[in-house]
């Protein structure tokens, strides 16, 4: 899924998605819920969006 498609689905700008993805800003709990709905709960959790630093190491080792 592209950042643009995700942004449209979640109702935010592509720049906002980019900023969240790169760690320049954080998602609100409401936005995290919308992102999970757009991406799919089998692929990502709200916790992974809200607290990416807790999951970064696990992703880097896979």
Summed up, what is this model?
The chain is built from five helices and no strands.
Average pLDDT level: 92
Beta-strand portion reads under 5%
Annotation field: number of helices: 5
Biggest β-sheet, characterized? none
Instruction: Calculate Rg over CA atoms.
Output: 11 Å
Count of individual beta strands: 0
| Structural classification | mainly alpha
Helix proportion: 55-70%
Order of helices and strands: HHHHH
Oligomer: single chain
Straight-line distance between termini: 20 Å
Principal-axes geometry comes out as globular
Return residue spans where pLDDT drops below 50 for at least 5 consecutive residues: none
Query: What is the number of independent domains?
Result: 1
Task: Provide structural commentary.
With 62 residues, the chain is mainly α. The protein has one domain (3-60). Helix content is 68%, strand content 0%. It has 5 helices and no strands. The protein has helices at 3-10, 14-22, 29-39, 46-50, 52-60. α1 packs across α2. The two termini are 20 Å apart. The model has no long low-confidence stretch (mean pLDDT 92).
Name the descriptors.
mainly alpha; 5 helices; 68% helix; 62 residues; single chain
Topology readout:
Blueprint: H1 3-10, H2 14-22, H3 29-39, H4 46-50, H5 52-60
Helix pairs in contact: 1-2
């Amino acid at each position: 899924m592209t950042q643009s498609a995700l942004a449209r689905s979640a109702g935010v700008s592509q720049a906002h998605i980019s900023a969240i993805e790169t760690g320049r800003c954080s998602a609100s709990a409401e936005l995290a819920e919308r992102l999970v709905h757009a991406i799919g709960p089998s692929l990502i959790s709200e916790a992974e969006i809200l607290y990416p630093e807790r999951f970064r190491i696990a992703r880097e080792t896979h």
